[in-house]
Amino acid sequence: MELVKTIIKMDEIVKDKQSHQQTIGYVATMGYLHEGHLNLVKQARNDCDIVVMSIFVNPLQFGPNEDFESYPRDEERDKQLAEDAGVDYLFMPTVSEMYPTESFMKIRVEKGTDVLCGASRPGHFDGVATVVMKLFQIIEPTKAYFGLKDAQQVAIIKNMVKTFNLKLDIVACPTVREEDGLAKSSRNVYLSEKERALAPQLAMSLNEAKMLMEKGMHSRADIISFLQQKMQQISLGKTDYVDVLSFPALEAKELLKGDVIVALAYQFEKARLIDNILVTIKEEL
């Protein structure tokens, strides 16, 4: 595995691979790698000739009171995990490399940001879209791999690719979970012992909601009410949001049908956890 720190060097590598008609699979991360990230690498390894991973904690997507400085980082551990997983090139630029001067512009996401995580994090997905667009331009992947744990992010990136006619495929991979169902996340390390014991109730509640929908409960309001009651039972934190929306359009439809996302966010003392599940509701004949 080769470690790459500069955009110029990454560009040289990409041009060389393209000249040999090699496909590039790309996994974008903010580091502190876990099995979810490595699963994306595995999929990219199966599909493409070359695998590039980036590790970059992007300041544009953190709000004034969010955890940019305290976001977990472990560069040496990440390097070893990436190499063991089969990454060919690990792109680890500094903030000054990615943003050498004050930006003249950034992407503004017009739809799909006023719900779920975007509702309480204004500007967050503008920052995500801007850095992902920059990384796509630098790495020029054939396919880019993202986990469905951040399903709103997947939807917004897919819409960005479609809007700007970017010549790559977005591959959405299932959420990787612990044995007890908790979605793997870099922020899980912030959970206390008691919080960690309660955290699997997030996934359990989503699965219960899915079962209700499959049994015929197709009212958005009823599913939201059910999840709110389940979240109140956790007791060691507070609910940020629960919602049920069409996917990937992320629109609120009171009568649920087709592909929908059931999503929630829960704030423990030091960790805000998100989770979701996708459900397909067949139209009744």
From TrEMBL:
Gene3D superfamilies: HUPs (3.40.50.620), Pantoate-beta-alanine ligase, C-terminal domain (3.30.1300.10). Its main location: cytoplasm. Catalyzes the condensation of pantoate with beta-alanine in an ATP-dependent reaction via a pantoyl-adenylate intermediate. It comes from Alkalihalobacillus trypoxylicola. NCBIfam families: cyt_tran_rel (TIGR00125), panC (TIGR00018). The active site is at H37. One of its GO terms (molecular function) is ATP binding. The keyword ATP-binding applies. Its EC number is 6.3.2.1. (R)-pantoate binds at Q61, Q153. The keyword Ligase applies. HAMAP family: PanC (MF_00158). This is Pantothenate synthetase. It is found in: Cytoplasm. GO terms for cellular component: cytosol. Keywords: ATP-binding, Cytoplasm, Ligase, Nucleotide-binding, Pantothenate biosynthesis. ATP binds at residues 30-37, 147-150, 176, 184-187. PANTHER family: CYTIDYLATE KINASE/PANTOATE-BETA-ALANINE LIGASE, PANTOATE--BETA-ALANINE LIGASE. Belongs to the pantothenate synthetase family. One of its GO terms (biological process) is pantothenate biosynthetic process.
